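pls design
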C-alpha cells in the first residue's frame, strides 16, 4: 500500500517547527480574528464540529492537512472501501461501512468496487432482512417481555450505548438487560427480574469463545432449564460469526456476520439486534442511514473540510506535538451516558499500539487515554483538574440542541453549562493569583447535534470510527487487531486452574500470596 509513515513526511518536520515557533493563545486569536469560528468549524451530516477553541491556527491546520496528504490517507481510505486486507495481521478486510449502505445500493452491488464487495453486499442484505424481520416478530410477540443481551466489549458497548441513547423511542413492551461481566452479580441480579417463559436471551459474541460471554450463556441456559423453561430454541438466539459454535451450544436461531466486522465496529451488524428490537426497523434503518451519510462525507469531502480527518489530525497534533496524553469526552446528554465507554474501546483498542502494520516499533506516541462522564456530573467531580491541574487535557463537548423531554428550564441550564465550561477553560482567570488563578487557554472541541435521533447517533458514531481509522492510518498502525488482550486471557486460564488447585509454583511472590489469600 502506498503510504508514508507520518513522521517521515515533510509536513511532520514543518509541524515540529510550528509547535516551536507558534504559541497559540486562544483569547488573542479570537480577539484578532472575527472569522475564527467560521474558519475552524465544519458541518458534517448531523454534526457540526467546532474546532475553533483548539490550539490551532491557519498555518497549523494547513500543515496538518498536508500531513494527511503526504501520509497517503486517501489511498488507505480507498483501500478500506475497496475491501482490501487492511487488517494485515489478521489477513482481513475492514468493511463495517458496508453494513450501513441502503438496501438499494446493496442490491445494485454489481457496481461495487470489487467482486468481493459485491458478494458480501448480497449477504449483508439477506442478513439485514432476516434480522429485522425477527426483531419485528419479537416486538409483536406478546409473550416476550424481557430481552437479555449477553456479550462483552464490542458485543455489549455499542448495543447498550445506542439503546440508552434512543431509549425514548424504544418499545415499552420489552425490558432490555445487558450482562457483560463474568462477575456473577450481574446475571444473578437479572435472574431476579425475569421469568423463563417471557425472556429471550441473545448470546452476542463475534468469536463465540469469549470466556465471560460463554460462562454467562451457560449459566443462563442452566437457569432457564432449572426454572422449568422448555423451548431453548425459542428463548435463545445467537449473534456471531461462529455459526457452528452457536449450533453446538444448542442455539438454532442465529444471525451471522463476517470476520471483516471488527467487534468494536459491529453495532451495525447482527450485534445491533437489541437496538432493532428496541426501536424497530424504521429507526434502525435511520441509524444506518445517518452512519452512511457520514461514510459519504468521509469518502468524498476534501481533507481540509473533512470532519473525521480534521479531528484525527487534531488528535495527532495534541498527542505527538503537545504531548497531551488524554482526551476527556463530555456528552451533555444523559442518553449518551455510555458513549465514553464506547469511545474508550473504539480508540484505545484500535490505536493503543506500539508497532506499525509490519510489527516495527514506532518512535512516537499513539492512542490518547479516553475518559469522561456525562457532563454536569463531571463538572462537579473532576473538572477542577481540567481547569487548574498541571496537565492540559483537551475536552470534547457533545451538545444536543433540542431536548428529548419537556423541561425547557432544565435544558437551558444544561446548555448554559456546556457553553460556560468551554469558555471558562479557554478564558481562565490568569490575572488572579494563588488559589483563584485559572491559567486558561485550555483547548476544547464542541460537537453539536440538533437532536439526538437514530440518524444523528449513527452519524456521530461513524464520525468517531473514521476519526480513529484516520489517526491510526497516519500513525501507520493496524487499528483493527487487538493482540494486546490475548496474554491476559491465557494467564487468566492458568490462574483459574491454580485457584482450584492452590499450586503456586513458578509464580511471583505477590501473585502467589494474593492467590493464597483469595483461597483461604
Ligand atoms: O478481548 C477483546 C475482545 O476480543 C474485543 O475486541 C471484543 O469486542 C470482545 O473481546 C468480545 O469479543 P466477542 O464478540 O468475540 O465475544
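designed seq:
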Amino acid at each position: 500500500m502506498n503510504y508514508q509513515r507520518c513522521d517521515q513526511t515533510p509536513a511532520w518536520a514543518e509541524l515540529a517547527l510550528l509547535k516551536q515557533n507558534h504559541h497559540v493563545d486562544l483569547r488573542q486569536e479570537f480577539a484578532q480574528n472575527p472569522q475564527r469560528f467560521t474558519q475552524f468549524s465544519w458541518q458534517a451530516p448531523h454534526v457540526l464540529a467546532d474546532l475553533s477553541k483548539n490550539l490551532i491556527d491557519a498555518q497549523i491546520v494547513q500543515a496538518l492537512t498536508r500531513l494527511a496528504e503526504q501520509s497517503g490517507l486517501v489511498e488507505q481510505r480507498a483501500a478500506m472501501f475497496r475491501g482490501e486486507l487492511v487488517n494485515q495481521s489478521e489477513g482481513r478486510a475492514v468493511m463495517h461501512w458496508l453494513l450501513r449502505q441502503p438496501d438499494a445500493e446493496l442490491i445494485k452491488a454489481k457496481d461495487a468496487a470489487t467482486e468481493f464487495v459485491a458478494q458480501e453486499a448480497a449477504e449483508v442484505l439477506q442478513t439485514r432482512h432476516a434480522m429485522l424481520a425477527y426483531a419485528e416478530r419479537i416486538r409483536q410477540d406478546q409473550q416476550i417481555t424481557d430481552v437479555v443481551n449477553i456479550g462483552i466489549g464490542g458485543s455489549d458497548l455499542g448495543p447498550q450505548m445506542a439503546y440508552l441513547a434512543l431509549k425514548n423511542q424504544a418499545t415499552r413492551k420489552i425490558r432490555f438487560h445487558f450482562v457483560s461481566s463474568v462477575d456473577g452479580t450481574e446475571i444473578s441480579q437479572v435472574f431476579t427480574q425475569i421469568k423463563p417463559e417471557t425472556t429471550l436471551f441473545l448470546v452476542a459474541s463475534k468469536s463465540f469463545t469469549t470466556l465471560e460471554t460463554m460462562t454467562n450463556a451457560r449459566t443462563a441456559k442452566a437457569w432457564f432449564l432449572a426454572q422449568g423453561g422448555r423451548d431453548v430454541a425459542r428463548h435463545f438466539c445467537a449473534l456471531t460469526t461462529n455459526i457452528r459454535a452457536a449450533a453446538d451450544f444448542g442455539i438454532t436461531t442465529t444471525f451471522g456476520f463476517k470476520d471483516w466486522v471488527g467487534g468494536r465496529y459491529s453495532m451495525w451488524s447482527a450485534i445491533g439486534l437489541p437496538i432493532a428490537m428496541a426501536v424497530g426497523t424504521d429507526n434502525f434503518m435511520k441509524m444506518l442511514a445517518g452512519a452512511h451519510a457520514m461514510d459519504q462525507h468521509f469518502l468524498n469531502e476534501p481533507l481540509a473540510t473533512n470532519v473525521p480527518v480534521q479531528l484525527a489530525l487534531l488528535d495527532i497534533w495534541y498527542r505527538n506535538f503537545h504531548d497531551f496524553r488524554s482526551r476527556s469526552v463530555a456528552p451533555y446528554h444523559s442518553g449518551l451516558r455510555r458513549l465514553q465507554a464506547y469511545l474508550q474501546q473504539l480508540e484505545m483498542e484500535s490505536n493503543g499500539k506500539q508497532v506499525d502494520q509490519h510489527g516495527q516499533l514506532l518512535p512516537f506516541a499513539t492512542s490518547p487515554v479516553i475518559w469522561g462522564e456525562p457532563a454536569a456530573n463531571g463538572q462537579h467531580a473532576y473538572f477542577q483538574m481540567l481547569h487548574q491541574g498541571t496537565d492540559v487535557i483537551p475536552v470534547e463537548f457533545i451538545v444536543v440542541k433540542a431536548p428529548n423531554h419537556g423541561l425547557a428550564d432544565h435544558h437551558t441550564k444544561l446548555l448554559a453549562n456546556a457553553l460556560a465550561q468551554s469558555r471558562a477553560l479557554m478564558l481562565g482567570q490568569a490575572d488572579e493569583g494563588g488559589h483563584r488563578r485559572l491559567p486558561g487557554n485550555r483547548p476544547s472541541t464542541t460537537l453539536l447535534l440538533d437532536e439526538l435521533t437514530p440518524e444523528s447517533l449513527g452519524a456521530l458514531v461513524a464520525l468517531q470510527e473514521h476519526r480513529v481509522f484516520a489517526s491510526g492510518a497516519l500513525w501507520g498502525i493496524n487499528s483493527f487487531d487487538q493482540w494486546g488482550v490475548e496474554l491476559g486471557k491465557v494467564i487468566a486460564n492458568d490462574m483459574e486452574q491454580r485457584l482450584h488447585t492452590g499450586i503456586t509454583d513458578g509464580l511471583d511472590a505477590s501473585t502467589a500470596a494474593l492467590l493464597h489469600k483469595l483461597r483461604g
